[in-house]
Amino acid sequence: MTCKICNREAVGKYCELHERAYRNIVKKYDVWGSALNLSWEEYLNDVAKNPYTGSWAREVAEHLTKSGVAEGHESN
Amino acid sequence: MEKYTLIITEKPDAAQRIAQALDHKGKPKKIEEKGVPYFLAHRDRKLVVVPALGHLYTVVHERGGRNYYPVFSFKWAPRYVAERDAEQTRKWIEVISKLAGNAEGFIDSCDYDLEGSLIGYCILRYACENKESVAKRMKFSTLTKSELEKAYEEPLSQLDFALIEAGKTRHEVDWLYGVNLSRALTLAAKRWSGRYATLSTGRVQGPTLRFLVSRETEIRCFVPTPYWSIRAEVEIRGSTYEVEYERKKINRKIEADAVVEECRGKTGEVKCIDVKKFQQAPPTPFDLGSLQTEAYGLFKYTPRQTGNIAERLYLEALISYPRTSSQKLPPVINYKAILSALSKEAVYKDLASELLEREELKPNEGKKEDPAHPAVYPTGNLPERALSEPEKRVWDLIVRRFMAVFGEPAVKQSMRANIEVNGHHFYLRGRRVLKEGWTRFYKPYIRTEEVLLPPIKEGETILLRKVIVEDKFTNPPPRYNPGSLLKKMEEEEIGTKATRADIIETLYGRRYITEERILVTDLGFDVVEVLRKYCPGVISVKLTRDLEEKMEQIQRNSEKRENVLVEAVERLKPMLEELKKKEETIGQALSEAIKRARMQERIIGTCPSCGTGELMILYSRKTKKRFIGCTNYFKGLCETSFPLPQRGTVKPARRNCRACGWPIVQVRMRARRPWMLCFNPDCPRKEPRS
């Protein structure tokens, strides 16, 4: 199986590197949510646009937005 | 023919300086044979001073070609046997061998460290036919006349064999790791793709690349966290001052807004003023690593550039031997004599004279020691030629640092006024220098900004003129640069002072990393990934540190070279077996990474026409000509293309045209200066040559 984003070898949907970025995104949602009261979709949108977001985290956020996956349903 | 003593040096410049110092008239005769220079000098006897060209011998496999692994049998052989670009070493070895035939005495005067000792030993053993046991050793830390004369008059009775054994072991272990692992990676990729690309890794290269990959992963996976901070200003006697809110980070916007609401337009009261006096100790003398880090921070010279500049300054007898890990300056170097000599240079006159007036000079030494050499210091000699700008800067830095270590501590004062506004605390901070101390000597290289506060008293009422909320995000960790990476290698105790800078350059050369603020390429990621999966020991800091420790034990005579080599082979064997077993998978992963890296190198920037594709250097299958095209062409979305010069090489310049903002390319042609080309046909002005 290959990563949905980069075609590297994957165990689930993502390769090890994008999976790590995905886990970071899920982990930080609580902080963003309590600070700004955002929905999961709004949060992903903000993360994807933020200039400090790492390139893999941005790719995962964009992929999640496009595929319309709800929080916690993408994990490997 | 008159017999003579043959003195072997590491490099031609050192040979000339040693011959000049030892010749009773200071005018040795220079002779050239087959393009190899050597010097005839007369002192108590006839002396022939012959230079090497760095290492003339290296480790090679005992037999067989380059296209297989594992290889565990090796021998020492002339470099021209192993390296295609080392043909000139043949003539050097021939000339040295001939000179050795008529010599009655031998002195090794190569640099007194691991590499220098090994260079001298190999020449004495192989080129001079087993003279290593009768040779004497000159030991010196500067190439000044007085020190060289002393080293000649009082040589060590024999070579430092423990140091030589450690040097041999280091080269042999590094060869075993480097050759086997690099071949495993290169051959795996070649067998899969049919195309050759040099891939390498090694005992120190692997862990260093791993540091970079781990930092790069953190940066690429980084998700920023929002937070808010309060920015406020107070007005005191008609002037405005910025103040800090008691909490630097506020996690919820609603809380930050509440602070602003409660403080806006209010006055506050100075509750207390804390004044603290503190001392800043002088810096420690430079060892090579701290010199390289400082030169990178101040001048952006890479560690290798600084190393090369320092070596040139050493060969001109302007500074002591730079490849040292010592932070100590023993009194025997004669501080006063050096300062007195430096005071002849107008720019150092006042500062050096000030130090000379003191009864006692005591340097602020660091903890690190080096049994062979003291810290880097100026010899006191002044340049005999006009130094280049980088040489001037590095020499000045070394001179000023030398003076600064004798300075008194700087005394500074910090002040903090606590202003309470409606239950919230704001801090007004100031700092000033009470006594410059050592900073006077190091002035151009240290910045001390003073922030003076207005005269205020406790209980005074102060108006909060402005208070606003600022939206902020946490930042990813910083990227390494060559200076900070070198520091990290030092902290992790991997590599040696002589090899660290070269390893960083190799990582650039192999295209594992790019840019000054280091970015790891896909190829770098994949190499670490392969090593992590199939031979994690190679990227383990612990393994390489253990080996470093063993080599230091050899130097202290408490470990044997043979044991270390056997252990290295035992560790390597299972790794190589695993690599061989998985050769196909590894080859595929690496080949794809190489392909991606090659593609990446051809990408110029975003397509200005469609805005979504990327402009790339492409080759027409039909005409075989190169041009710039948009990657969206392959999806049928964009047909943008631009012609390119067909001669020379073209590569992305990684910057945009100053006039039109389009990405530009760099064109290089033989016998011409490279130039920047803006391929925008409508560019208001073409990029001038740079």
Order of helices and strands of chain A: HHH
Major beta sheet summary of chain B: 6 strands, mixed
- The overall number of domains of chain A is 1
Number of domain units of chain B: 5
Instruction: Please state the oligomeric state of the protein chains shown.
Output: heterodimer
**Residue-averaged pLDDT of chain B:** 92
Q: What is the residue-mean pLDDT of chain A, rounded to a whole number?
A: 87
Explain this structure.
The complex is a heterodimer of chains A (76) and B (690). Chain A has 76 residues and is an all-alpha fold. Chain A has helices at residues 16-36, 40-49, 55-67. Chain A has one domain. Chain A is 58% helix and 0% strand. In chain A, α1 (16-36) packs across α3 (55-67) and α2 (40-49) runs antiparallel to α3. Chain A is elongated and about 35 Å long. The mean pLDDT of chain A is 87. Chain B has 690 residues and is of the alpha+beta class. Chain B has five domains: 4-159, Rossmann fold (3-Layer(aba) Sandwich), CATH 3.40.50; 167-220 and 497-594, Topoisomerase I, domain 2; 226-282 and 410-473, Distorted Sandwich (Topoisomerase I, domain 3), CATH 2.70.20; 288-404, Topoisomerase I, domain 4, CATH 1.10.290.10; 603-677, no CATH class. In chain B, the strands form six sheets. Chain B has a six-stranded mixed β-sheet with strand order 2-3-4-1-7-8, sandwiched between helices. Chain B has a six-stranded antiparallel barrel with strand order 9-10-13-12-11-14. Chain B has a four-stranded antiparallel β-sheet with strand order 17-18-19-20. Chain B is globular and about 100 Å long. The two termini of chain B are 59 Å apart. The chains are: A mainly alpha (76), B alpha+beta (690). Chain A binds chain B through residues 17, 20-21, 24-25, 27-28, 31-32, 34-36, 47, 50, 52-57, and chain B through 217-227, 251-253, 473-476, 525.
